[in-house]
């Protein structure tokens, strides 16, 4: 993988009372968030980490080239824009928020930040 084609996406789970859910571990966060197959587009190498007292899941996506990263972004953007259910979750008790994306330079420093919510 090439370090030049990486970005981080930040996710959290909001409860019906507006509080944030706390995850027990990364697998628990992945299950509760319910990523759909669009997040597998271009087969990125993914790294997962919990932050913010285990209320945020940070996923780093790494791609072989710009075309793969662009295809991933297009698939996820389409899912988010054209789906009433972009997450495989239980909407009766909570909902997933993708609240920040950081695009990274090759050295890992932040190139650009977007706030999709």
Structural commentary:
The chain is an alpha+beta fold. It has one domain (about 5-115). It contains two helices and five strands. The protein has helices at about 25-35, 65-80; strands at about 5-15, 45-50, 55-60, 95-105, 110-115. A five-stranded antiparallel sheet has the order 2-3-1-4-5, covered by helices on one side. The radius of gyration is 14 Å and the shape is globular.
Tell me briefly what this model is.
This protein is of the alpha+beta class. Helices cover 21% and strands 34% of the residues. The protein has a 5-stranded antiparallel sheet with strand order 2-3-1-4-5, covered by helices on one side.
What separation lies between the terminal Cα atoms? 29 Å
Our Rg estimate from Cα atoms comes to 14 Å
Strand and helix order: EHEEHEE
| Overall 3D form | globular
Give the strand content: 25-35%
Strand order of the largest sheet: 2-3-1-4-5
Average pLDDT works out at 90
Low-pLDDT sequence parts = none
Number of DSSP strand runs: 5
Report the structural category: alpha+beta
**Proportion in helices:** 10-25%
Count of discrete structural domains:
1
Oligomer: single chain
| Main β-sheet description | 5 strands, antiparallel
Total helical segments: 2
